[in-house]
Amino acid sequence: MAAVIDLMETGGGALWAIAALSFVGWYIMLDRWLEQQHARLNTRRWARIVEPRLAAGDVADLPALQREWPCIEASAVAFSLATRQDAPDFGEHLRRFMRGAATRARRRLASIAVIAAVLPLLGLLGTVTGMVQTFTVLADVSHPDPRLLADGITQALLTTEAGLLAALPLLLGHAVLRSSLRRALDRAQLYAHRARHARDHQKAA
Question: Do 14 and 129 meet the contact criterion of CB atoms below 8 Å apart?
């Protein structure tokens, strides 16, 4: 533990800021991941109930399932069935609904991307601070102490490396979460069209 504290003190304030912001980023990312896992579990349970009903054309009670198994797929189906059957521009209504759902969901992931972008900048700030410290030693002392020079250079390199290493997993995690969200939105749109088709077929029969 003492070695970690010594390392953090060597990196200065920038390294402490990187560590704190990285912790916040990981917390948000894990929270969003757990949220997606919960939604995926709800989707699976919801789909086991919905699939037979869609095949049979029995869609009357599907909107009520949204309260029991909340997920984007259930919301899309409820929206699809709530739209009038004779609405000529259903496709546009559905696209607008899906765009709104996508915007809200992506906004919840945006903070991860922002933190991942800020971390290397904090590393760069630490680099500048370390180099300023190094040049200050060179300017103030006619025979500079190599240890003081090494402290400034160490801070410059350490914070740069820390900023990049902290940002990388957050960027990868953000990409994975966005990909999972995109698949969920695609499934939701497909289920909405299937529910609409099943209801129209049932009315026609």
Answer: yes
* Phi, psi (rounded to 5 degrees) for 58: -95, 90
Domain count, the chain: 1
In a domain, 6, yes or no: no
**38 found inside a domain:** yes
Q: Is residue 31 part of a domain?
A: yes
Dump pLDDT digits (tens) for 39-91.
889 888 888 888 888 777 777 777 777 777 888 888 888 887 777 655 567 77
Reference 36, options 64, 84, 72; nearest CA is: 72
Distance CA 77, CA 82 (A): 8
